[in-house]
Amino acid sequence: MLKISELSEQTGLSAHTLRYYEKHGLINASNRSEAGYRFYNDSDLRRVQFVKTARNTGFSLADIGQLLSIRVDKRSHSCQDVTDITQKKLLEVNAKLTELQSMQQTLELLLESCCGGPENATHCSIMEALDAGLLREDNKEARLIK
Amino acid sequence: MLKISELSEQTGLSAHTLRYYEKHGLINASNRSEAGYRFYNDSDLRRVQFVKTARNTGFSLADIGQLLSIRVDKRSHSCQDVTDITQKKLLEVNAKLTELQSMQQTLELLLESCCGGPENATHCSIMEALDAGLLREDNKEARLIK
DNA sequence: TATAACCTTAGAGCCAACTCTAAGGTCAAT
DNA sequence: ATTGACCTTAGAGTTGGCTCTAAGGTTATA
Ligand SMILES: [Zn+2]
Ligand SMILES: [Zn+2]
Ligand SMILES: [Zn+2]
Ligand SMILES: [Zn+2]
């Protein structure tokens, strides 16, 4: 039986975070001492580790709630239920990746275009590009206007 | 001279957002009517468009504040001042990209490993992987444990 | 028995960038 | 003169995931 500080050590999640997860229905301490201290058993620990792994994978706490309700009753859920959640998350991640890659490309083009030197910025092509609107917005690819 | 709703139309930013930007020192209406209505001239419009372009490029409002103070006095700033901000932003973007790519890879591996079918999840390899800790965390690359 | 290091709770604060509300003033058209 | 569409302000609410505080109770050690 682990106290919350011990569970915290085992998992790398703060005691605050563990209580927060409990408040949001993700985890629970299956026992309490007479004074009300939380005590966690091995099954509790494994559940917390599941949450942590899912969190590291990028799932939101809401997603994890769903995954946990599958986990506690696998017989009532299908592999498709699991892949639906995973697929949805992958789509979100891919959308963000696309957005960030476009930013990356724009920033790289901006940096290439500027001398980066110590003289004054009256001629700076980054400032010019930002002033000019920078992108052809009709095109999905960020591209500096020449 | 544009009223706020007209500037909103011209820029695609809501009047709320324009007032929010003003409150945070990014933009300003150079004139007001007797009744206190904001009026924007061409120079105001160009400044707002600069803000919008920088926003689309991924810069935070704090970054944009710095870029704007360079913009109004280019002679007192160097190209390096501009590239410093841009480079910092690129590093942030690259860090997020790395994180998201790792998530993407993990999610793809999970999806490959699961049949996604209608039978029950007692054998689901996604659930197993999340239970098992999923990643070799010593390695930067996400990898399913075999 | 005192001190420190734990634990409890409800609830507030934080981050960024909005987004919206309330309560009222203004303006153009009917 | 009355709609209705605009405008103003200060300030509250939203999102997600923590993070921290206050005020108190418990436990281990000296
Ligand atoms: Zn230069
Ligand atoms: Zn430059
Ligand atoms: Zn299956
Ligand atoms: Zn499966």
Distance between the termini of chain A: 67 Å
Number of helices, where a helix is a run of at least 4 consecutive DSSP H or I residues of chain A: 6
**CATH class category label of the domain at 1-59 in chain A:** Mainly Alpha
Question: How do the strands line up in the largest sheet of chain A?
Answer: 1-2
The third-level CATH topology of the domain at 1-59 in chain A is Multidrug-efflux Transporter Regulator, Chain: A, Domain 2
Q: Judging from the principal axes of the Cα atoms, what is the shape of chain A?
A: elongated
Named once each, the bound ligands are:
zinc ion
Q: How many DSSP-defined strands of chain A?
A: 2
**Average predicted confidence as pLDDT of chain A:** 93
Helix content of chain A: 55-70%
Biggest beta sheet attributes of chain A: 2 strands, antiparallel
Q: What structural class should be given to the helix and strand makeup of chain A?
A: mainly alpha
Percent in strands of chain A: under 5%
Most extensive interface? A-B, 57 and 57 residues
- Identify low-pLDDT runs of chain A: 137-142
**Based on the structure given, which CATH architecture of the domain at 1-59 in chain A is correct?**
Orthogonal Bundle
Q: What's the helix-strand series of chain A?
A: HHEEHHHH
Whole-number radius of gyration of chain A? Answer: 24 Å
Oligomer: homodimer
